[in-house]
Amino acid sequence: MVQADDGGVELPHQSRLLWEREPGAALESAGKAVFGLMLNGAQGDDDEALAGHFAGVTGQFNADGSYHDWLVTNFYNLDTVSEKAIIAAVTPMDNYLADLNAGQNYYRPSYMVVATLKDGLPAAEFQQSINQVMNHFYRHNFIYNHADANCAGITIDTLRALGWKVPHRGINGYIMAIGAYFYTALTEADLDAARQIYDYLTTETTRLLPAVAFDAIGEDLLRLTATESPRSLTAYEQRLAESIEAIWFVRIPQIPSSRVLGGAPIYSFSEYLETAPADRDDWVTIELAERDIPVALKQTEPVNPPPHPIPWPVMLILLSLFSLVVTILKFFIKKRIS
Question: Whole-model pTM?
């Protein structure tokens, strides 16, 4: 549903009922709590933004069907100045999607999976927890990292910490990551860029890619509605499963403007390579200025400081090659002397 019709970027707004506990339950949602997942698509004018964006949503189902006042917990890098003028915050939906300076839907289409709940406690627990995470984020207890601590990773880590054991989807693989590291280091002569591609390929994909997080959580949300769960549920999962009244899929088209049309986000590293121009020089990118963070907000050293440019598996390979070269040289020198 996300990828169909170029991501639905120019199609009408769509609300599709995926499941309801009893016939007609979805029509009796007014006033009930909602818990949702927000996925924003790929930008059409930035080849570094093809993976989209992700956020958690909470609120109350309005009688007229509107969702302008639902809360979206939006994590963006605090250490750079966003070209959209976005600053990480818990923000109302109308600002998140349609504010002239920061609205996501001026840049790309968006999608939601929304569950209405007869008991709002699971949504309230999530919002309380993610508010605390945002507090730690602003205190620089941890920093935004496009691989390990991005919008998807921060949100799904919070859900898993609450007890929602969303199944993992795995990593791309260390062999691919090591090969990509050496290729990037040699072709771009940039160890930081090489480390970044290595981290992308070794990060669990539900934490790395917004579309994969959206797919995995949405699939598990539907799985929780089954009469018999395929796994033993935690206390949080049990409360959520018993509370779900209906589940909706919502597709929101891009707002017409002078901006280039976006599309569906990519779901894998291989899809990224297929979508972005083959020649890196042909990429359309937007350089972001660094933001000076007030010292008062840097109360402690972050728990996830920038990683060393050379990861330990690569360091181990380099040391092994160095030892091999030294051993071979010693052999030939000894042979020549004898």
Answer: 0.92
